[in-house]
Design brief:
The chain contains ten helices and twelve strands. With about 375 residues, the chain is of the alpha/beta class. The protein has two domains: about 120 residues, Aspartate Aminotransferase, domain 1 (Alpha-Beta Complex), CATH 3.90.1150; about 240 residues, Aspartate Aminotransferase, domain 2 (3-Layer(aba) Sandwich), CATH 3.40.640.10.
Length: about 375
Amino acid sequence: MEIRLDPQILPNSTFACGPGQGHPLLRHTPLYQTCFERSHRALDLTTEGLYKNATLALKELLAIPADYTVAFFPGGGSPALDAVLWSLTKDSLSGLAFGAFSNRWSQQMAQQLSSQVVSSVRTLQPGELFPQELPDYTASLVVLTPNETSSGVQIPNDYLEQGWNNRGKDTLIAWDTTSCAGGRLLPPNAYDINIFSLQKCFGAAGGTSVIVLSPKAVERIAEVKKYRSVPYTLDLAHVVENARKFQTFNTPNTINIWLCYEACKWMLDNGGLTAMDKLCRAHAQHLFDWAEKTDWVRPYVADTNFRSYTTPTFEITNPHISANDINAALAATGKPNLADGVKRFSTAPKNTLRIACFPFVDINGVSEYQKLTATLDEIVRQLCK
C-alpha cells in the first residue's frame, strides 16, 4: 500500500537509536573545521588541546571524580566491554542479562574467558522484562546496563545505589551507559567502571567509546594478569598510561572526540546534565502521553520505574498494523533522517517501535516529537483505510 504524506508535516530530526543525532548546528559543520588529517600525537590535540579539553569536559558534565581515569577507546561499546572483561575480571563474574546488549556483555562475551571464571548472571524468566534475582555482589566483577537499548528497560537508580552499597570488598561494579550517558542523571560515583559509546546522547558517529576507571579498577589491571594473558588491544594498562597524558594508545577517531567535546560544551552551557535529563524526560513524556491517547500503541514497559526515557519502546496493540509497514512508510518519504525509521532492535518483540529521546533530537522541546507522532498517526490512519 502506498502511503501519501504531506512533506510539510514531516520532522527533520533523526529518531533512530544509534548513531543518534548530533547537535543541529554541528550537523552542518564543514569537515575541515574539525581535526581531520591530524596526528593523534600532536601536542596541540592531546596534552595541550582537544583530547585534554574533551576529557575535562566529560569529567565536569558527568561529575566524574578527579582521581578517576577517563580514556577514549577505539571502536564502539563492544570492544570496550571486551577490554573490561579481559582486564578486570579475576575469578568470578555476575550481572544482569535482560536484553541484547546486557546479554552480550554478561554472557556471550564473558563466555570467552577461562572456564575457571565462575559466572552467576541473572537472566529473565518467562514473562519478565527484568530479572527478579539480585546479582552476586561478592563476585570480582559485576556488570550492569543501566539502560538496555534493545528493549527500553532501565535499571532504577535506587537499584544501582543498592548494588554499590552492598558490593564485596574485592568487587568492582561496571556500568555500560551507552544509551544514557549524557542524558540521564545516575547515582553519582556508584561505579568503578563506566563504559559508553559516543554515538547516542553525544551525537557522534560510531567507532569511539569512553572507559572511566576508578583507582581500584586501575589497580586490578596488574592483578588480573596473574589469572590470564590479556590480548594487547584489550590490555587496559596501555589505555590508562596514555590517558593520564591525555593521549590514546593507538590512533582514535579524532573527529568523534571533537564532536564529543562540542556536545559537552553545549550541554554544560545549557544547564549541564540536570538539564539534559529534563530534556530527555520531556521528549519521552510527550511520547508516553501520545501513546495513552491512541488506540493502537502503548509503552512496552508498563512499570514506569523500569521504563527508559532515553530509548523508550512502544508495543503496537492493533493486530492489523505492522511496525515494518510503518518503517517502510517513513523510509519512503525519501528524507535521510527518517530512512532508518523508528525500528525495533532485532531481538526485541516483533511489533514494537523504538524511538530515541536523546538531547539533540530536539534541543528546543518537543516540536519535532509532535511532528513525529502526527506522522505516525497519519501513516496508521492510511494503513487502516
